[in-house]
Design goal:
Length: 593
Amino acid sequence: MENIKKPQIITFKRLWPFLWPRDLKGAKTRLVIAVLALIISKSTLILVPLIFKSIIDVLTEHKSVSAVFVWIGLYGFVRILSSFFSEIRDTTFASVTQRALRQVGLDVFDHLHQLSLRFHIARHTGGVSRIIERGTKAIETLMTFLTFNIVPTALEILMVSIALSLMYDVRYTFVIVITMILYIVYTLKLTEWRIRYVREMNDADTAAQSKAIDSLLNYETVKYFGNELHERHRFDVGLIAYEKSAVQNKWSLSYLNFGQAVVLSLGLISIVGMAALDVQKGAMTTGDLVAINTFLFQLTIPLFNLGFAYREIKLSLVNIEQMFQLLNEPREICDAPDAIDISDIKTVVTFEHVDFHYDADRSILKNMNFTIPVGHTVAVVGASGAGKSTLARLLFRFYDVIGGAVKIDGVDIRKISQKSLRSMMGIVPQDTVLFNDTIYYNIAYGNPNATEAEIIDAAKKAEIYDFIESLPKKFDTLVGERGLKLSGGEKQRVAIARTLLKKPIFFIFDEATSALDTKTEKLIQDNLERISKNKTTLIIAHRLSTVIHANTILVLDKGVVAEIGSHDELLAKGGLYAQMWQRQQQEVKEEIS
């Protein structure tokens, strides 16, 4: 039991600041208004049983009809008054609830963006989104039940108990207290027992949704291999687990509901029986019997609500706990406390004895040493898996090196703020992924404050302007999920335009033209060379013909620098680079023939 309670107490403590937003204007005033409205609303409801008593007594004593209607009118007025103040309470807290949802949502969103690339590669997007969705809904549920059920119900039970003890025999209050204690203890015990089924149900739901999202994101691959039935089976495995947990959860809920009904019914029978005996003895009037019965019904509904509210709060805390686990994920890459901002590269970018691996049992870079002088173009070539793209990730500090250091002007990039570091660099990645929005939005993403003329200019330099103008909706054309409505070459040119719009001082081209035809590639290469002239540039390439203009070429082989020099120098050495060059030239000749 303690193992279950402890994380939920921690979750509630962490959630508390969100339940009472400090930046909400007039928060204290709202609290006073809501509390006063709650007290007035519940106080007026306490009058309802007394009004019913008076109506019955007037009727049994055969008094004038007008007296009956006075009491009936008073009954209607009290109900309306109670409802009015209840709505005042609800609307007062509405802004608090929505502000809490907004703050938590932003905190989770910000934190996910601050987590490392390693985390995002390892997690299922569908599972993460499902956890966030359940967590934010759970906060709304928690706020609703805390402010609109738990506190009002507790106040109502207290007020009814006091009224009964003052007006009638203490025996009635004793039975009510015993009934409430039994009801609350039973509810707490059964709800704690049910929590494990809820956890199992959530885990199964997350797993099933992760498989579904993963399958839909890879729609084309599923179709290529005709694996619809295979994907259906994977999804169904998750649904079967969810179905089993959901059925167990429903059974446990039935046990809880039935037990609660039994406890309340026994209490109700006891009090009504006692009241009936008192009426028969002449110690109470028929109106008193009706009043006590009405009091009981006013308690019964809140008690049912209290049990339901407690269940929902416990379930909500489970969902919120899972969402907060995302917030507890450590940030692998953090700015140093004394991190500095830089805006320029004055002399050189250096890799000094850099060692790196994604997994400890597989080394990627070993004792990597090279420099990129300011204004120079350095190219990196090598076989797939040699570690070429890893260099770009280390420069952007998506990962930290295991050994050695990456430096800019002699300063370790771990001592530079991530924002200023990345603001200087622009990359055209090997795998281009676009937002599911318009072409205009995706190009403008390089600089959201850019003018339309600047965006058009970037599109022209990326040799995609004519293609865009040929489309029916031109720049307003939607590119689809991950840009799948565009071809590989079109996506790559949008990515190039986006990077050019950023106007970085350090260009990184990671197979930037790999998806283009030879003619377009030549046009874009000329543009890129002109734009990046006299700017610090790192080119990662497989096709050697795209890097012959580089000042320096590094040849990577199994994570180490096997050769270094200019194009002519490397050909003259007759080593690995020369072999690669000859092989690619032969492939070109074969294609032509």
